[in-house]
Amino acid sequence: MKLLKNISLPLIASLALFACERDYDAPLLTEPEYTGPSANITISELRTQTAAATEDTPVIISQDQVLKAVITGNDESGNIFKKIYLQDETGAIEMEVDQSSVYNYYPVGQTVYVDLNGLSISVYGDEQQLGHPQGYLYRTPWEDFEKHVSKDGWANPENAKPLVIDDISTINTNPDAYKFKLIQFTGVTFQNGGTGIFAPESGYGEENITDSHGNTLMIRTSNYASFAGNKLPTGKGNVTGILGRFRGTWQLTLRTASDVSDFTGSSEEGGNEGGEQTPSSEKVLFQESFGTPEKSGNYWPYLSDYKGFDNPASMFENTSEEKASVRIVSNLTNVWFPGNKDVAIAIKGINAQGNTSATLEYQVGANVYNAGEKQDLNTLKVKCNGQELSIPSKEVTGDAKQGNTPFKMTIENVTVSDNTTLEFYCTTTDNAYGLRLYNVKLYVPGSSTSGNEEGTTIEPTPEH
What pLDDT does residue 461 have? Predict the structure, then answer.
């Protein structure tokens, strides 16, 4: 009994201690409160004030101006990279930030006050973006970002309700009223629903949705998105995202997988009544974005020295005496073929996976800036396994401000093998101003692809 009594007292004390530990409440966090100057400018007014900004020359804000806005998009899923989206009652704008996992600190629905003094408006893809004049790609360094962007109150998802639209064509009536806003498109279907995925293992996925009026919109998804490999839903449903715009082309960016909702899971349009086979998605044989090169001093890396490709560096070869380099211009990575020189590169060892025919897509631009300068994009010639491909004419001019604008070339029915080599080259006589190769993709189209009788198409392409 005495022994039991001696044991019981420390046991009771320890139980009391653990009980206290279990019941311990952490101190309450302090709700953020903004106490600085009142907002004195809107997003619409900021856009107007900085309309003189260009891709090469940003407008640095030197006035004591404060913007109040709500965060509508961030990098929670990995589909948005080093940027957030701000929206107020007058419009929306993208803000560049040199930091990952921003969503942990600035969630969607967070009201913020942005001290604009010292920040800048630059232009990318013909659209204004807020950032830092000294930052890499105008991204705001994290320390500066936290100084300039102040939270007010707790984040509330109700602050970031999307604008609901059931007719995609509505956005073309007044683009400035919709660009970079959080939009929900209702009653839409995925063209490759049930077969395709949001993005391939490398590069970006581009999938179209169609509304009940027959209008289409592209959804662009990074392979880094947590939902990139998800199968596209079937039937009708709703899609929410940031409605971006790049060189006049709309593209919707999903924030998370939950932005795709309420799909019925079946075709409501009758579908394959005639017993046609369900369309299959494309098979990508090769895709290359050329990574993110960095300068060494004042010089971009030569292609022959560069290691930052998406694919093994051993696949890439500079086959001419003159050297191509890998650069970033207007935020777009490209292989630079300098003007008035014979320059050639090869991409070797592409595995066609047993296929004998494929479609080649690549983006190309010419360095025409001044009035009177013009060059045909077919001066960047292409061979596949030694056979020269037929490339249609597309002349770009400085007068039309098409300098270094990427245009997508699509060449169908290219003969391939299990050890395919692609060659891109230009000659002194044809390449007057310099050419840029932005992306390369070789793929076998899905059965839903209708094809092009001419075998080639050209269109300006968004690369954002």
Answer: 45
